[in-house]
Amino acid sequence: MPEIREKVDVCVVGAGHAGCEAALACARMGLETVIFTVSVDSIALMPCNPNIGGSSKGHLVRELDALGGEMGKVIDKTFIQSKMLNVSKGPAVHSLRAQADKAEYSRAMRKVLENQEHLTIKQAEVVSLLAEESADTNALYTKKILGVKTFTGAVYEAKAVILCTGTYLKARCLCGEAITHTGPNGLQAANFLTDSLQSLGIEMRRFKTGTPARMDRRSLDFSKMEEQFGDEKIVPFSFSTNPEDVQIEQASCWLTYTNEETHNIIRANLDRSPIYAGVIEGTGPRYCPSIEDKVVKFAEKERHQVFIEPEGLHTNEMYVGGMSSSLPEDVQLAMYRTVPGLEHCKIVRNAYAIEYDCMNPDQLYPTLEFKKIQGLFSAGQFNGSSGYEEAAAQGLIAGMNAALFIKGKEQIVLDRSQAYIGVLIDDLVTKENFEPYRMMTSRAEYRLLLRQDNADLRLRKIGYEAGLVTEEQYEAVCRKEQLIAREIERLQGIKVGANAEIQKFLEAQGSTGLKTAASLAELVSRPELSYEAIAGIDKDRPKLPDDVVEQININIKYDGYMKRQLKQVEQFKKIEKKKIPVEIDYDDIKNLRLEARQKLKKLKPLSVGQASRISGVSPADISVLLVYIESMRNR
Ligand SMILES: Cc1cc2nc3c(=O)[nH]c(=O)nc-3n(C[C@H](O)[C@H](O)[C@H](O)COP(=O)(O)OP(=O)(O)OC[C@H]3O[C@@H](n4cnc5c(N)ncnc54)[C@H](O)[C@@H]3O)c2cc1C
């Protein structure tokens, strides 16, 4: 039988949120790329919640956009409701969240992929990776990737492969006693690739997650629920979307609650839940618990929130947020029907749990390349994370680095002081993760610097240098930076005296009078005032865009806190910059504790900073390591 053999630069296995970003990055960086999916109809599918962003995840999307990713642009075209979360708190934790029209989101991303030069979409199951022993005896890698093979026998030779297989490897879906060997939404699972990965020495693990039921809108009584509206003034996700283009008429979501009756039904049927009956082997995400978990772990709580969210504008399906479950269908129906507004609900799709194979991400460098296999990268749920945004962010970095690797250029590693994406990847590759990893603001040390509003100022340059951000987009951010700096300087330079006109103005604004002259910047820094509020005593100011004004306010008001955080970053960078020579022999370091030696040998950190974050490596071990590196240099 004649063999199909194709030669490309990059193979991306998976067209979920990670795969789409990875493939687009490679193709946009000029590399011939093929993206594989078990179904073309499921490109950028959202198998769970119908939204993009949210606390800390919104940060990831804005960072991804600043670097030249696609998720922010696609959700701006397909959202049906948008909200900036946590606005009553400081700007560090403001986070954008948009309800998506799922089908439209998927369609819009597919269109981008289909029209991308150098990118081919292929519906085929990849069953094995092709690799050879590394020829270079000094190399860090033991193997080199050569390509992939599909179920039908076609071979794709490639210089790099990116694994973005999500929740499909040996997937198993559970709804009580009913178990199917399928991926999400009844799609075909990918049952062969795991064995090939294991034969290459990749250590696999099994995780699980779950989703709630979808209900027919016509069977719900919204009069018993609280209506949830979107923001009046919508902020786009993408820095390149014109804010005027997103001021649309929005759909509503609804809030209702579980009650004692709901909880009693769940408790009485726990033995029929695959999780509690011990049928599920995989570990689930602690921060996205099923309703069974919530009722068991928070037994004292009288009620739990339930968000009813539309899955799109052209469907009657409603998502039941907060009530994911793997209980049997009859129990699901009984428990959902105890919730106000859902008494007569009709379930379109049952809730279910899904188990899948993924891998321990400590096998990766922070570039997302495998430590042992040159040219093999991975991203998304396959790396043990959970969430569309976490997947997309990793996908972009894996794609950029695969392309840079092929071009023989230095790869990109964002550190913890540069981006939430840096925190996400650093946590994945250096910390022990025993459950699906989800991004949270509390995971970032330098929250005040890593805001969603300044992602463009932090990261556009990196995207531009990689070739993913256009000249025009980069110039726009440079202009913005200049405008902010110039205006702050102007405000610092203008002094107003303690005269009657000023005192009267301040009093009218609810602010205390001046004892001596003060700069306009000092007035802006007062909590009760802002740049906009002092317009009346600053008549000659230039007309500035809203996003510039936002930066002026934040930079002036939080100046002291930010300076303090920048000092901490300086300390962090010092240790982060201390590279560990790749040829280091940890067995040769006397006084290193056994646990630290084992962890360092396994995880191969690239810097002393990274080593210091490995659990089981103590500050004393780091001192020993520093002395040894110094002695290596002297030798
Ligand atoms: C039931 C369910 C519930 C979830 N609940 C939550 C939740 O509560 N919170 C949360 O944050 N996240 C949840 N998620 C996870 C969320 O869907 C994922 O984090 C996100 O989709 C991961 O993106 P990804 O690109 O890594 O993988 P996916 O979106 O899963 O995409 C994987 C892609 O790989 C392709 N593929 C896989 N193997 C092969 C192969 N061998 N050959 C060719 N193609 C292949 C598939 O066709 C698909 O295109 C849930 C997922 C599911 C299925």
Structural key phrases:
globular, five-stranded mixed sheet, alpha+beta, FAD/NAD(P)-binding domain, Arc Repressor Mutant, subunit A, Elongation Factor Tu (Ef-tu), domain 3, six-stranded antiparallel sheet, binds flavin-adenine dinucleotide, 635 residues
TL;DR?
The chain is an alpha+beta fold and 635 residues long.
Write the layout of secondary structure elements.
Layout: E1 5-7, E2 10-13, H1 17-28, E3 33-37, E4 51-53, H2 57-66, H3 71-78, E5 79-85, E6 95-100, H4 102-114, E7 119-123, E8 126-133, E9 143-150, E10 155-157, E11 160-163, E12 172-175, E13 178-180, H5 193-199, E14 204-211, E15 214-216, E16 226-228, E17 253-257, H6 260-268, H7 291-297, E18 305-310, E19 317-321, H8 329-336, E20 347-349, E21 352-359, E22 373-374, E23 376-378, H9 388-406, H10 420-430, H11 455-466, H12 471-493, E24 495-496, H13 500-508, E25 518-519, H14 520-525, H15 546-557, H16 559-577, H17 594-603, H18 608-612, H19 619-634
Parallel strand pairs: 1-10, 2-3, 2-11, 3-7, 9-22, 11-23
Antiparallel strand pairs: 4-6, 5-6, 8-9, 9-10, 12-13, 12-21, 14-21, 15-19, 15-20, 16-17, 17-18, 18-19, 24-25
Helix pairs in contact: 1-9, 2-9, 2-11, 3-4, 6-8, 11-12, 12-15
